[in-house]
Amino acid sequence: MTLGAGPSLHPGDWPSRAVLKFPPDAAPPPIANPWTGESTFANPFPIPQDIFQAALSYKVPLAIASVYAVTVTYFNWYNRQHGNKAWRIAKTRPFFVFVVFHNVFLAVYSAITCVAMILCLKHSFPHYTEANAVVGTIDALCKIHGPRGLGDAVTYQTDANTWTSLNSNITVGPAGLPDTTDVGRMWNEGLAFWGWWFYLSKFYEVLDTAIILAKGKRSTTLQKYHHAGAMLSMWAGMRFMSPPIWMFVLVNSGIHAMMYTYYTVSAFRIRVPNVVKRTLTTLQITQFLVGTTFAAMHLFISYTVPVAVAYKVAEKVAPQLNTSTIASAITSATDSATLALPTATGVAVAFLRKLIYRAAGDEGLAENIPVPGSPLPVHQQQHVVAGHADPHHPVQNFFRHHDTVERVVYRTEYQTVPCIDTSGQAFAVYLNIIYLTPLTLLFMRFFFKSYLRRTNPNAKHQSKHAISKAAHDASHGVEREIESLGQAAEDGISSAVKRSKDALRGRKVNANGNAKDERHGSMSPANKKFLDNVNKKVSQRLQELDEGAEATVKKAKEMAKNVVGKAEETKENVEGQYQEGKEKAKQESQKANDSAKQEVKKDSGNVKEEQSGSRPGTPLTPQSKKAKQRANKKAREQSEKSEEQLDNEWVQKPEREAEPKDLNNTLEKRDGKGLF
After folding, report:
1. Residue 659 per-residue DSSP state
2. Nearest to 228 by CA among 74, 62, 377
3. For 66-95, how does the pLDDT look when each residue is reduced to its tens digit (9 = 90+)?
4. Which residue in 27, 86, 167, 590 is deepest, having the highest Cβ count within 10 Å?
5. What backbone torsions phi and psi does residue 516 show, to the nearest 5 degrees?
């Protein structure tokens, strides 16, 4: 408690241990939106208190978020195993209609919620022209219950387990809760109603992921992280009525209004510039940065508010004080004040007003009337009622030497209050920080790397372009980093599914989810199983034949030798036939050549006879040319035919009379049965 000239802000104060304990206190329970019987934009209709509280049970978001994360990870793996093909339902007309309706509904709903939160802030913030507007704005952001006004908020006192206000003139409702008729604070101005429905919308938004999976696409890890984290963050903020939750509702609904509008346009296959998609992604990651910083600030801010503090003072009173006596005292005081008006009008009027309130018995109001020119009006007047009399003052002379009584006087002082009041509010803040910090750190890491890579210390006027590009690269870097974790999770799901299937089938698996390879020497389990089956059949066959292993092996060897001998004889016969055919082919070829030469000589003789009657150098007649061509052609044909016959006609391998067979086929020929 201080005696300052006005309220002040104290950033950087550390939170107390009481608000940082874990698990947080369950009190106070969440309060449903106020309902006075009149529908307004801030509170269109009442939400029953039991339904309001049941939806904010910790089991609801925890169960849904866990099932959502595991299910999406599994279906990502499923789509990858099936080549990322679209499901059959995704190709139907009803599915397209549902997608359009879903996107339009969320775009309109998000826009309405954003407008509602803007009006909520407008009705809660003081006007910038008001006195102490800065501290008043901090008070409006930190205290969300009670009537509007600096120091008039209703807060929950953990020690006393009650709702109270620092202003004694502010009262709570009949049930000990903040009055539903209070106006000017965010909870009653729309945060209770629109924040609760926005919390429930986080569960409906998982249909975004269902649509993506049905199309055969992969839901990004960033999307899964965002949806699951948003459920828990909104739950904590609304369950413990934490002040920063309005920021999440306002910013997230605004971005979603733009995002679902983009999805609606894309559903109709209308091309949207890539810069729009990049901008939306950057805005989503930017809200993480802003949200983390804003939420964390609430833990380290405190400020002072004016508080009317009661004090007891002693006064002299007459033994038999009646109305006429008071009236005469007031008349005398009024006359004295009137005489002093020409010289000190402000002081005299203030003193007169104090005197009248005291005479009426309202000491608190009299004490709070300021005296012009005095920085501490209460202290200036305190010595008067305490018995330090002015010998020339008529009222003080009247009370001199009379009885002493105690009266209560009020003095305005400034009390420091923290922005966060309960451990539940603090829990909601650092849960949001835990949720957003990994994304924030990844973004800053990639941002600085990209920015430093793009900037040149010697270049000027490039910072704006570099920052824009660095932010874009950082957003993609965050997606890639988170995506790698998602891939690892999907691989883990895949291994778990395989391990479960193998366990149901009775197969042993190792730590990696693969079938355990219990090798027997150099053989694998599959080969060992095959060999055992072979041995089993062999044993059964030997028992049927009533032959020992040695006799069977001996007969098998003898049969094998016979087969090999026949194969060798066949080979020798084939080689002999080949040589014989080759010799015959050569002889036929020689005969054909000799015959061709004789015909050529004969044709040449005819040609010479024809040329004998002509002069030397005379060209051959057409008949002679044809005869010569026929002779050459016939010689070539005979030569080619001889070679072809040598390779094809005479050198063909005769069919083998007895080819080597395997042991099983040989035994089959022997007695009509095989070993296996």
Report:
1. -
2. 62
3. 999 999 988 998 898 888 899 999 999 999
4. 167
5. -70, 125
